[in-house]
Amino acid sequence: MSSSKEKATSQKPNVVFAAAAALVLVAAVFGLVAPGTFAAVANAAFSGITNGFGWLYPLAMTLFVVFSIWVGFFSKYKNMRLGPDDSRPEHSTGAWFAMLFSAGMGVGLVFWGVAEPLGFFVNPLGAEPGTGDAMRFAFSKDFLHWGLHPWACYVVIALGLAYMQFRKKQPTLISSLFTPLIGEKGSRGPLGKVVDVCALLASAGGVCTTLGMGVLLINSGLTYLFGVPQSMALMIGIIVVFSVVYVTLAVAGVEKGMGKISNANIIIAVAVAVVLFLVGPTVDILNNLVEGIGAYISSFVADSFKMGAFGDHDWYANWTIYYWAWWIAWSPFTGAFIARISRGRTVKEFVGGVLFVPAIVCMVWFAIFGTLGMNLGLDTAAAALADTATSLFYVIAQYPLGRIIAMVMLVLTCTFCLASATGACTSLGMYSENGTLNPSNRTKVVWGVLLAVLLAALLLSSDDGLGMLKTLSIVVGFPFAIISIVAMVALIKAFKGEDTVAIEAAYKASLTEGDSPEKDVPASADASAVAQSANGTAEER
């Protein structure tokens, strides 16, 4: 175990933390002091990136899918352990899948579960609104945005972090992924620090986008269900209350408590989905799920590369490219969590679980909520979309037990937000302090306050709140898209140095000996688990 001197050294302010925090603070203050100018600058950056580099996102995300499938099922490294050859999984397969399941669930699914498919149903590309073709378009796009592509993005970062941490004994920092290309000295030098700053900025932006959707959803839910007047003051009040709670939880270090909240989130989400499946148009949901998957698969290659080059550029910029940037921005945050729970897994097991399990869950979720909305008809769908954040409550209220379920969804949104924000405070602190297991309370508090202030600035600088959240994802996700591509190349180079003969021999031996997990823990899926367990051996090195 490291000495107190080593721990103190790891928790001293460093240039990565100072630079990232300063940039976020400047952006937040800018947005609060001059929201109009801030919005103009952000929108200019948004236009510049989507017009000049929109091609990068579909290319990068599709490369991630190809890489994930190759490395997991066709490469000679597929049986390599994420750890020493004699390592075994730390968690049972059931617990591991449960954690992956919850990692794929969050405010985004709650916010967009009804709004996105209804938006495509009412305003489809190349189809008449409200028709079967519009439904096909809606489900194929929903499944694209929440299917294999985003989880392949996570595979690249999480696989790289798990490999470098458990097999190469490197700290859990994004800069460690560059070690195979520029050496350990280079990854710890100026370039590595720039990479880690970008990771912090991307994480902060991704978290703020998700929390912003949660605040909008809570605001609309209170208005729709209880008649509370919808206002910016109410949203700022929600942010203040939330920030006090999640900063307190992060400082208190109540990881077990947050784990219980995360497990409760999973149970509630599954229970709500099952109830709605039963009280809603069950047969239509199953039909739409099956045919939607078919539409997704049949158009997979073409849709993977679509970015509006032949028209409809604005639509793709506001939907597909936005989603790709959002997932990329989340990858350093969620990737660390996935990496930490995957020690001892083979690459094949890892890719199979991370790539397919959450994607299937997301497809089922959208099939249920999308069908609930579409089956009410075009006029009702259009009425629900009058306020994007209210559409969830509007649609659910049309079904049996609707008001009760809507209130449960409101509670679920609150707990999702708290869980994500608490984890964000601590994991951002981890990245800020050289991957330390227990970042200082000072750093966690700083990030908690910065997230709240930046979120308030984003909502104040946008007429509908949602526009600036999308803009932020694309702007902060851009540099990390490049980082992720380079990290993928570095990972391939690192794998080439592996002894594949020894890997296969060890794998065959494990089949004979059995592959029981070394230990098991409750299936906590909240990202706060990252902060407490990620880089679990870093302080011992």
From TrEMBL:
Belongs to the BCCT transporter (TC 2.A.15) family. GO terms for molecular function: transmembrane transporter activity. Pfam families: BCCT (PF02028). Residues 512-541 are annotated as: Disordered. This is BCCT family transporter. Residues 523-534 have a biased composition (Low complexity). It is a multi-pass membrane protein. Keywords: Cell membrane, Membrane, Transmembrane, Transmembrane helix, Transport. GO terms for cellular component: plasma membrane. The keyword Cell membrane applies. The chain crosses the membrane at residues 54-74, 95-115, 143-164, 194-218, 230-252, 264-283, 321-338, 350-368, 404-424, 444-460, 472-492. NCBIfam families: bcct. InterPro entries: BCCT_CS, BCCT_transptr. It is found in: Cell membrane.
